[in-house]
Design goal:
It contains no helices and 3 strands. It is mainly β and 104 residues long. It has a 3-stranded antiparallel β-sheet with strand order 2-1-3, with no helix packed on it. Pfam families: Zn_ribbon_8.
Length: 104
């Protein structure tokens, strides 16, 4: 049997009700007694049953954050390394000089 969510428009009371699909819709609020109890539109819940499904399949939720072991930030951002070559370093050492040509 499905579970339906109801909410009162007057007092704001909300309740989840287990009902058959053929049962009539509730209209009277159990707290204030007014006919403002309406069914809400909610996302459907489901369970994967049977063989072949694992507990970790299709599990929603946030993954556990990784801890900083080697001093790297846990935020996942790329931190500049201290031993990385600088972009503004002189390019003279990197460019080879052309070999002199012999003229006979």
């Amino acid at each position: 049997m499905p579970i339906y969510a109801y909410r009162c428009d007057d007092c704001g009371f909300s309740k989840d009700v287990l009902q058959k699909m053929s049962d009539p819709q509730l209209t009277d609020c159990p707290t204030c007694g007014k006919a403002a109890f309406k069914k809400q539109l909610t996302a459907a819940g489901f369970q994967l049953k049977g063989t072949g499904w694992y507990v970790t399949d299709f599990r929603g939720g946030a993954k556990a954050p990784t801890t900083a072991v080697s001093g790297a930030p846990a935020g996942g951002g790329a931190a500049p390394k201290a031993d990385a070559p600088k972009a503004d370093a002189p390019a003279a050492a990197a460019a080879p000089t052309p070999a002199p040509t012999k003229s006979d």
